[in-house]
Amino acid sequence: MVKVEVKGMSQLKAKLDKLPKVIEDAVWDANFDIVELARADTVREIQSSTKHGSGETARSYKDEVVINSNGHVVGRIWSDNPTAIYRELGTGQVGQASPKELPEGVTPVYRQTPWFIPAEGLPDLNALYGMPLITIKGKKFYRTNGQPARQALMPAIKGAKQQAPEIYKANVQKQLRKLRG
Hints:
Order of helices and strands: HHEEHHEHEEH
Number of helices: 6
Oligomer: single chain
Number of strands: 5
């Protein structure tokens, strides 16, 4: 008869009992890393492509990681600033016609008639965006049919999504190393 002695079984069992929490922590941390990466890329794109701005739009982006009603860890990025939304989706007929990627379930409705922007105190919108300057009853206005989408958020999310597997892997490995110690 062969006698087998297993040493460290209680330590192994203790580590295996910790495994679900370790994986949960890794997923949580990875989601934070992915969301922060996408938000940072969005802000960088807006800052690098804005000629006349105060930084208000770039600073308006927020992010969070939550557990949704189905128990899944979900990362979110958004802006409540209307300018950010107009920039991402475009405006008017021009925005509607411009190419863009939309999140699932989002169907914007665009204004179909031109509108007028008072010219007083503005930079030359004709030179910047090609908006014609017109005079109505002695006052100057720029006429526009909208602006094209100049997306920053959706490409940033797409880029972060491509990096997500490596980010998850790195976070799982980091948490497993903690378990070893």
